[in-house]
Design brief:
The complex is a heterodimer of chains A (469) and B (500).
Chain A: H1 2-7, H2 9-27, H3 33-50, E1 58-60, E2 65-67, H4 69-88, H5 90-93, H6 99-117, H7 122-140, H8 147-178, H9 183-189, H10 194-211, H11 220-226, H12 229-254, H13 259-282, H14 287-307, H15 311-342, H16 353-356, H17 358-372, H18 378-391, H19 396-422, H20 436-451, H21 456-465
Antiparallel strand pairs in A: 1-2
Helix pairs in contact in A: 2-3, 2-6, 3-4, 4-12, 4-15, 4-20, 6-7, 6-12, 7-8, 7-12, 8-10, 8-11, 11-12, 11-14, 12-14, 12-15, 13-14, 13-19, 14-15, 14-18, 14-19, 15-17, 15-18, 15-20, 15-21, 17-19, 17-20, 18-19
Chain B: H1 4-19, H2 23-53, E1 61-69, E2 74-80, H3 82-101, H4 109-128, H5 132-141, H6 144-153, H7 158-185, H8 198-203, H9 208-225, H10 234-241, H11 244-269, H12 271-297, H13 302-323, H14 326-357, H15 368-371, H16 373-386, H17 393-407, H18 411-438, H19 456-474, H20 477-499
Antiparallel strand pairs in B: 1-2
Helix pairs in contact in B: 1-2, 1-4, 2-3, 2-4, 3-4, 3-11, 3-14, 3-19, 3-20, 4-5, 4-6, 4-11, 5-7, 6-7, 7-9, 7-10, 9-11, 9-12, 10-11, 10-13, 11-12, 11-13, 11-14, 12-13, 12-18, 13-14, 13-17, 13-18, 14-16, 14-17, 14-19, 14-20, 16-18, 16-19, 17-19
The chains are: A mainly alpha (469), B mainly alpha (500).
């Protein structure tokens, strides 16, 4: 019994936090926002720390639930991102009435993602997925008085439901042909007959929607633009990261027999995703939309790494997502601050940003450089290893396309830098106050971006864990 | 000597600049840092000589290697040979004089000096790395500071130029990336694992099929940096929009990254492909030389004159590499050093003139020799070096390239050599015309007559570069002795490849 508790530790802690919040909400109705935020961030920090101790490996519930070093690491990455987002959101949440509700929804989605990561059975996987996506729709609607926010929520729930439908359809056909939903048994029974291929395509399409790979990306920009910044960053970092982890494990374990098939599919998806994401990002005027398309393009690079289907591939995907957490949250952290204090979200509003807010502009610049993959920031290493994992297959056409896409992406990242550093503004932004929590979060992101590439231990650790597939 | 010192000096300097308060502190720290760089460079040269004279014949000296990403066999592997030392010295000279020239920079001076020093960090790292990953890392480190330097402190259509430069150079490095990944996956260290290590790859035999595919990636990629025709278009815009020090760094250091990379990574590691593609390289280099020279004739802006002439002069570097004879490659490296010093001097002189007269148009200048004798003399010296007057480094380097090129006896290469030689005449035309109109003659603008001559910092910066130019021009042997053994190993590699 004790062992089972330890195995499910991450899920249990999140559940406990959810209950604490609910009880607190009933018991002390008039808590001040500051008190609540301190408490919640404290709890999240404890949650993050707990991820490093008493970790066990094993299975539960008749092989439904599995956990090992790699899955624990993935959960820790999500915990870290959750904490950083929560710290960044304090300015915005202080003005809101529904802090507890916000966090209960957010933590529920996190719980869903944990179950999804630990799933060893397609049913469990589907359960976790739904648990994580339905509250997100409610969160996207959290700017209650804004129309765009409701629109975003509607779009999200529709596309989410549609992709879940596809996934479920695929899962049911897979069950029809094999008679099992267990990952390990599926891997043995899949032989590539047409019905299985069809169900695989449906599954891949479902995943494609969730990670917003082209051509399943159409919901992304609108949802990102309409949602509150905190939710946007959650969508683009945590939710996407979790699905990518699961996708890697499903592809590498369940569909291992079909590796030749899905290599070609990932190839096509990656090329489309990079090119379309990049070309659309060039034209954006709204910073959140801009980051939406840039994150689409990033997914293209991740798919390249995934297509390598080797130990290096797993390691590079996880390493990149970790770096992506830091770099994207660095950028979103600045946007969250600016948006909470001035309400400005357009790229043109950032003209001359360096003169009025040098520190924030530097954070933004380093984050963008990391997203673009420019050394010495961590993004360089992340992208390099993704391409290296992809190149392991010997397909250098794909690598050349990817390398040239990095140049296109550099153009639009530098465009933001140019706006901040080189352009004059008639009505410059005032000097913004950076309160303690966002400051901690941004500093953490910067430390991550600058240091990750130079700590040899981290990659070695991830690499050694990546054998589990 | 541990080579990490070469990286620590600029790193600590740049951190010091970030922490310093007030312009005086910033200036002093950057000057000290730059002087330390030069001292370290000279010390390295002395150490190198003493090692060699004591009979140490290892290919690379002062090697050290640290595991970086062990599972992928990526090491931080550094070491130097003669060519690297020549490049390090060049960098140190240009950095110090660049810092001196920008002494008066007051807008966002902290950021300005930080970026300059940071750029030099990239260059040193690039020149000492013996691991392709490390090399690529530092190559890209040296790109983005240029974007900011041009975009923020530049003049004219600076934002356009900065973007164009950054994108073209990054495009080049994207090709390099493909090339080096291709090399990596064609190596085999015995147990099925691959390596980025330069020396290990050189000892292996990369399959000719792979060489044919990846040589163009690597060579064109690095070629973009060194103005390979037709990828030279960033050069005129970038140089002319950049602030003086950034122009000096661009032409003096970062164009050399390309030439060094072409030689070290493309030609040295893929010798068979280098031979097969040599005629294309020579063809493109010859076009660059002639086209650059004629394009320069049409320019009216001093910075554009020097930028286009850089295209032409860097063509000699590629020509030397493409000719694949020992003398020609040695000449190519000498040309890199010579051009680095000479063009930095040229840009420094143009910057000094521009900061006083506020024009760079040849037609609007005239007679400045009378009011600014020092600056004008510097300008003339740079011009004479550029057209290859004996006694200056340009003559020595170009002469070596031509002699080496002539050794390649096939008709095609002979014709290319003759054409390249002929371009010297064109060079003489545009240099003498620019010097004659801008510097000599009567004073054309009455405002010029009360302008001041060079200040101490400018004098120091110019003298430093002139010392370098004359040292090579009068006594080229020391540079030759530095480079020639390395070229020998490259030729040996080439010979082995043919035998295999």
């Amino acid at each position: 019994m004790n062992e089972a508790l330890l195995l499910m530790k991450p899920e249990l802690i999140v559940t406990v936090i959810i209950f604490i919040l609910l009880i607190l909400h009933v018991a002390r109705e008039n808590s001040s926002p500051a008190y609540l935020l301190n408490l919640i961030n404290g709890l999240l920090f404890i949650n993050f720390l707990c991820g490093f101790f008493f970790n066990r490996e094993g299975t539960l519930f008749g092989d439904m639930y599995v956990t090992n070093g790699l899955i624990v690491l993935e959960k820790n990455i999500l915990n870290l991102g959750m904490l950083l987002i929560s710290l960044q959101a304090t300015d915005w949440l202080k003005k809101k009435d529904f802090i507890v509700e916000f966090y209960v929804l957010l933590l529920t989605t996190l719980l869903g993602m944990f179950f999804m990561l630990s799933s060893n059975n397609l049913l469990m996987f589907y359960l976790g997925l739904e648990l994580s996506s339905i509250p997100l729709a409610a969160l996207a609607n959290f700017e209650l008085e804004k129309r765009k926010s409701s629109e975003a929520a509607m779009k999200f729930i529709m596309s989410s439901a549609f992709s879940s439908g596809l996934l479920l359809f695929g899962i049911s056909m897979l069950y029809g042909t094999t008679g099992t939903l267990n990952f390990a048994q599926l891997a043995m029974l899949i032989d590539g007959n047409p019905l299985q291929l069809f169900s695989f395509i449906l599954l891949l399409a479902g995943f494609g929607f969730k990670i917003s790979a082209v051509p399943f990306h159409l919901w992304t920009a609108d949802v990102y633009e309409g949602s509150p910044v905190a939710v946007t960053s959650y969508l683009s970092v945590i939710s996407k990261g979790a699905i990518l982890f699961v996708m890697a494990s499903v592809l590498f374990t369940v569909f291992k027999p079909l590796v030749e098939t899905w290599y070609n599919m990932l190839y096509l998806l990656a090329v489309l995703t990079m090119i379309i994401g990049n070309l659309f990002a060039i034209r954006q005027q709204n910073l959140k939309r801009f980051l939406a398309f840039s994150s689409i393009a990033q997914v293209g690079f991740i798919l390249i790494g995934m297509s390598g289907s080797s130990q290096e591939a797993t390691a590079s995907v996880i390493y990149f997502v970790l770096i992506y957490v830091f770099s994207n949250l660095g950028a979103f952290g600045v946007i969250a601050l600016v948006s909470a204090q001035t309400g400005k979200e357009e790229i043109d509003d950032y003209k001359g940003f360096y003169l009025s807010n040098p520190m924030l502009a530097l954070v933004m610049t380093l984050s963008l450089f990391s997203l673009a993959g420019i050394p010495p920031t961590a993004g360089f290493f992340g992208k390099f290893f993704l391409l290296m994992a992809g190149a392991g297959k010997g397909n250098f056409v794909l690598i050349t396309i990817a390398a040239l896409n990095m140049v296109i992406s550099l153009y639009y990242y530098l465009r933001i830098v140019k706006v901040m550093f080189m352009e004059k503004n008639e009505t410059p932004m005032e000097k913004l106050q950076i309160s303690l929590f966002p400051r901690i979060s941004l500093l953490t992101c910067m430390a991550g971006i600058i240091l990750i590439g130079f700590t040899t231990l981290l990659y070695d650790y991830i690499f050694s864990l990546s054998t589990s597939f | 000597m541990n080579l990490i010192v070469l990286l620590l000096i600029p790193l600590i300097t740049s951190l010091g600049i970030l922490l310093s308060r007030g312009i005086i502190q910033i200036r002093v720290i950057s000057l000290l840092g730059a002087m330390l760089q030069l001292a370290a460079g000279l010390f390295l040269l002395a150490m190198y000589w003493s090692e060699r004279s004591s009979g140490n014949n290892a290919q690379m000296l002062f090697e050290s290697s640290y595991a970086w990403f062990a599972p992928l066999n990526i090491n931080f592997h550094i070491g130097v040979d003669g060519i690297s030392i020549a490049m390090i010295l060049l960098t140190a000279f240009v950095v110090l004089s660049g810092i001196l020239v920008s002494w008066k920079e007051e807008t966002m001076s902290k950021e300005f000096f930080f970026l300059l020093i940071f750029l030099s960090l990239g260059a040193y790292g690039f020149f000492i790395s013996l691991d392709l990953f490390t090399m690529f890392f530092f190559l890209e480190v040296a790109v983005i500071p240029k974007f900011l330097l041009i975009g923020i402190w530049g003049s004219g259509k600076k934002e356009y130029s900065a973007m164009k430069l950054a994108l073209m150079l990054m495009g080049g490095s994207a090709l390099v990336l493909v090339g080096l990944l291709g090399l990596y996956f064609n190596t085999n260290t015995g147990n099925g694992s691959h390596t980025f290590d330069l020396l290990q790859i050189a000892a292996m035999n990369i399959p000719i099929e792979a060489q044919r595919i990846f040589f163009p990636f690597a060579f064109i990629g690095f070629g973009v940096f060194t103005a390979l025709f037709p990828f030279h278009t960033w050069v005129p815009d970038g140089h002319s929009s950049a602030p003086t020090a950034a122009s000096m760094f661009l032409a003096g250091i970062s164009m050399k990254l390309g030439g060094y990379g072409c030689l070290r990574m493309a030609t040295y590691l893929m010798p068979q492909a280098a031979q097969e593609y040599a005629w294309i390289i020579v063809l493109l280099a010859t076009i660059a030389i002639i086209y650059g020279a004629f394009a320069t004739m049409m320019q009216t802006d001093l910075k554009y004159i020097n930028a286009y002439s850089s295209v032409s002069h860097c063509g000699f570097v590629l020509l030397g590499i493409g000719m694949l004879t020992e003398t020609a490659i040695t000449g190519a490296v000498m040309q890199m050093v010579s051009h680095g010093l000479m063009t930095a001097l040229f840009f420094a002189a143009i910057g000094m003139i521009y900061s006083r007269t506020h024009t760079r148009m040849v037609a609007q200048l005239g007679g400045i020799m009378k009011v600014m004798p020092f600056i004008s003399t510097v300008f003339v010296i740079a011009g004479l070096c550029s057209l290859g007057l004996p006694g200056f480094s340009g003559f020595v380097a170009e002469m070596t390239v031509f002699m080496g090129a002539w050794q390649n006896a096939e008709t095609f290469y002979r014709i290319a050599t003759i054409l390249a030689c002929a371009s010297i005449v064109v060079t003489a035309v545009y240099i003498l015309r620019a010097v004659g109109q801008a510097v000599m003659g009567p004073i054309t603008d009455s405002h010029f007559s009360n302008l001041a001559d060079a200040a101490w910092n400018e004098k120091l910066a110019a003298s430093l570069l002139i010392i370098g130019i004359v040292a090579i021009g009068v006594a080229p042997f020391w540079l030759f002795d530095l480079i020639a053994p390395v070229t020998e190993t490259i030729m040996l590699q080439m010979g082995n490849a043919i035998v295999k």
